[in-house]
Inverse folding.
């Protein structure tokens, strides 16, 4: 009798906290709120997994899980905004760009925070929100599109890579204040990465070049997201000024680099 009582007391009882933890483990996100403002916090960590599964032992963000989750956040009447938290080494180019385009198309208030790293295809994800933040110690690696393995048809493959790179650059310059000229300069540097070309920049450098909006912490990102929510509820339109410089340069006669 005493044994049964002891076993019953030790068995876990399902409660709200267990359900919330299960949601975090499965989706990498959590819903939180303050003063009637509810946000969904979504994390992008490790490698962004695309059309092929990564090996065991590698942390990955599965884009097929995030796509329906982002759609549900946009459609939900119970969620007011989304915070995107990044600590990623990059990954599948098309999967990362697809997620970035999806978030950029949201009408709800959004903000991003780069922690640790926002490397490679993580750069478009860092700039896809209405406001972007980065902690001072975080870094971002900017390098050209690349691949491993056998290449058949070198000219055709190079042309494909060039077109893909142009798509990524256009998205980044359209959703940040960095100019195409400056970004291509960082993309092709040869003096910063030993085994590759490109640039490695920290938080303050990312803001100085116009890639990220502000250096800040979690509280800064949340404060701005709450500001966006308050303005959205009051009927004030969100002022998106990040890409105004690039729009003006194109209006002044600068054209995109022609494809070869």
């Amino acid at each position: 009798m005493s044994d049964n009582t002891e076993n019953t007391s030790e068995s876990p009882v399902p409660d709200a906290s267990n359900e919330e933890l299960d949601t975090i483990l499965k989706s990498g996100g959590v819903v939180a709120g303050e003063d009637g403002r509810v946000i969904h916090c979504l994390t992008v960590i490790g490698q962004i997994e695309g059309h092929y599964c990564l090996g065991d032992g590698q942390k990955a963000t599965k884009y097929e899980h995030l796509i329906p989750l982002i759609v549900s956040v946009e459609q939900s009447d119970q969620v007011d905004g989304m915070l995107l938290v990044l600590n990623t080494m990059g990954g599948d180019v098309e999967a990362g760009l697809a997620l970035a385009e999806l978030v950029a198309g949201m009408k709800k208030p959004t903000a991003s925070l780069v922690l640790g790293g926002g490397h490679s295809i993580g750069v478009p994800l860092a700039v896809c929100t209405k406001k972007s933040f980065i902690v001072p110690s975080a870094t971002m690696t900017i390098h050209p599109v690349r691949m491993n393995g056998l290449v058949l048809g070198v000219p055709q493959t190079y042309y494909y890579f060039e077109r893909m790179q142009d798509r990524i650059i256009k998205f980044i310059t359209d959703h940040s204040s960095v100019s195409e000229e400056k970004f291509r300069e960082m993309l092709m540097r040869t003096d910063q990465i030993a085994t590759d070309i490109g640039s490695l920049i920290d938080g303050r450098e990312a803001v100085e070049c116009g890639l990220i909006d502000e250096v800040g912490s979690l509280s800064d990102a949340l404060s701005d997201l709450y500001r966006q929510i308050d303005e959205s509820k009051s009927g004030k339109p969100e002022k998106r000024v990040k890409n105004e410089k690039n729009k003006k340069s194109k209006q002044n006669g600068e054209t995109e680099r022609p494809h070869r």
